[in-house]
Amino acid sequence: MADFREVADTVDLDDPGSLLVEVDERLVVLVRAAGHWYALDDVCTHDGGPLSNGRLDPDAKTLACPRHGAQFDLASGAARTMPATKPTVAHEVKVEGGKVYVRLRS
Amino acid sequence: MSALATTSGFRRDALETLLATRSEPRWLTARREAAWDRFAALGMPDPQAEEWMRTDIRLFKLDRFGPALGGDAPAQRELPPPLLAAGVDLGGRVAALDGRTVVSELDARWAQRGVLLGDLSQLAAEHGDLLRTYLDRETVAPGYDKFSALGHAFWTSAAVLYVPPGVRVEQPIHLYSALGDGACDVSRTLIVLAEGAEATVLSETASRGPHDAGLHVGSIELLVEPGARLRYVNLQNWGDKVWHFAHQKAAVAARGGLQWTLGALGSRLAKVNQRVALTGPDAEAQVNGVLFTQGRQHLCYNTHQHHEAPHCRSDLLYKAALQDESRTVWRGMIKVDPVAQRTDAYQRNDNLLLSPTARADSIPGLEIEADDVRCTHGSTSGRVDDEQLFYAMTRGYTRREAVRMIVAGFFQQVFDRITIESVRDALGEAIGSRVRDLQ
Questions:
Q1: CA-to-CA distance for B371 and B394, rounded, in angstroms?
Q2: I want to staple A93 with a disulfide (CB 3.0 to 4.6 A). Which of A37, B58, B199, B272 is the partner?
Q3: So what's the ipTM on this one?
């Protein structure tokens, strides 16, 4: 299993807010919403393009693809709405001492 | 010695250093400088553009690489063993390591008949007038995008083969380019078959280690003059952390014939434009593509069959098998000009997914401006049929043997079109060793 990697300071993100980070040669969208932290692969499983810059809904806990609107669950990566049907990868996040860490799931 | 130690980024001063280390004629350096101007003016590709929207290069850091400059040239013995040349009686070979040509040999039998083979820097001094006429055609346009401009400005190895009119080179020519970890190869290939000439060229790339990192930017230009026939094979087998950006184009003149077989096994990310232009009546081209991806590889191949003259034939078949979380993107286009009546063109792409997390994007296209043509295309993507697996296992095969057999059967259609035995064997063995099990 991969190790946790430091990716940001907690002050780097507003709540709600998102930030694109690099973790071990992968692009990950780090999300802060309603007091929680999430990390999703920056990949919409519908068209394979990036998810970052999509609309964040902190109440529904979803991130929408900026091109076709497919919504992904922030916690599990599950595809909540069409046109995506497959989940994107949700990674582990922890916050310690003002730092945010991400551990990749394959 | 790693080329990385003596690189300085793709900057103007690096170009000047590069030029200072070579004694190229003025007309050739002028081309580099013109390409530099384009490179400096062009931005990185627009990720929203159709050609790039499925190929994400945000993790690619161009400033971490630079041209191979100065220092001692690597030794020939450091070349990893090639796959395509094993057991083949070669008529000549050119090999580059870490972006520098380290081998250039041509059998005297062909040299006596006027065949030229070697590095462009050297051949340009003696045969400049001849080569210049072909380079002037700019078969691969230097200003197409930032990578083509980079390649035309900063190339450090350039293999050239010229076959004079009517000469049939019966022994295959081998072109090889290899990279060490962290190195950069900016290369060009120019092959010219003058009227009525014939040749077979086996071209391949490799890294010294399967997980080596690196960068390759390159162009391939194939000029098949009237009545000439070229069999060209290029096998891309870079290490799985190499970035690979290539522009490849063949121009086939009247009555000329080209069989172009492409194998793509390596690289972390490949973005390749492979184009064939049929420029004179009754020209024909057959294009075969064999792709196998694994891990998190991303291979994007854009193919283009351009019918610029009447009565021409083109036939393209790309087959890809994907495992793990790898991805392929194939965008194919058949373009038929208004003058190109009686065109017969075909393109097909089949993808076999060995894992639920692999992804194949297949986008065939036709753009037809003539009204008396036959143009067809097809695309399939699917998983291995469980019933086929079950049947093979009831006949005594293990599951892994069954999967390998099904993958081999999938590729057989394209292998049947490859007329060079060593190429069929090398591709078959390379793919067979990569296939694991269904995921």
A1: 53
A2: A37
A3: 0.88
Q: Is residue B60 part of a domain?
A: yes
The Cα B182–Cα B81 span in angstroms is 19
What's the token pair of residue A72? 């992904």
CA dist A17 and A9 (Å) reads 13
The token pair at B319 is 């087959």
> From CA B165, how far away is CA A63, in angstroms rounded?
63
Could B361 and A22 be called an inter-chain contact, meaning their C-beta atoms sit closer than 8 Å? Answer: no
Q: What's the domain count of chain B? A: 1
User: Taking CB atoms and an 8 Å cutoff, what residues of chain A touch B59?
Assistant: 22, 25-27
Helix, strand, or coil (residue B400)? helix
A-chain CB neighbours of B325 within 8 Å are 106
Least CB–CB distance from B59: residue in A25, A47, A49: A25
My answer on whether omega of the bond before B281 falls inside 30° of 0, hence cis, is no
Cβ contact, residue pair A49, B54, below 8 Å: yes
Binned at pLDDT 50, 70 and 90, residue B111 comes out as very high
Is B368 within a domain?
no
Question: How far is residue B104's CA from residue B76's CA, in Å, rounded to a whole number?
Answer: 11
Domain interval for residue B78? 5-279
Cβ atoms B167, B114 nearer than 8 A: yes
In a domain, B367, yes or no: no
Is the pLDDT at B223 greater than 70? The verdict is yes
Burial class (CB in 10 A: 0-12, 13-18, 19+), A58: middle
- Do the Cβ atoms of B123 and B104 come closer than 8 Å? no
Residue B433, pLDDT score? 87
* Neighbouring residues of B64: CB distance < 8 A, sequence distance ≥ 6: none
Q: Is the pLDDT of residue B407 over 70?
A: yes
Give the pLDDT confidence score for residue A2 in this predicted structure.
82
User: B361 CA to chain A: closest CA distance, Å?
Assistant: 9
CB atoms within 10 A of CB B132: 14
Mutation target for B interface from A20, A21, A43, A65: give the one with most B CBs within 10 A: A43
Give the three-class secondary structure for B439.
coil
Q: Which residues of A touch B (CB under 8 A)?
A: 22, 25-27, 47-50, 106
Give the pairing type, strands B284-293 and A62-64: unpaired
**Residue B4 CA: distances (Å) to CA of B153, B213, B250:** 19, 11, 32
Phi, psi for B212 (deg, rounded to 5): -70, 145
Q: Residue B167 and residue B186: Cα distance in Å, rounded? A: 30
Q: What is the mean pLDDT of each run of 10 residues along chain A (106 residues)?
A: 91 94 94 96 93 93 96 97 96 96 92
pTM: 0.94
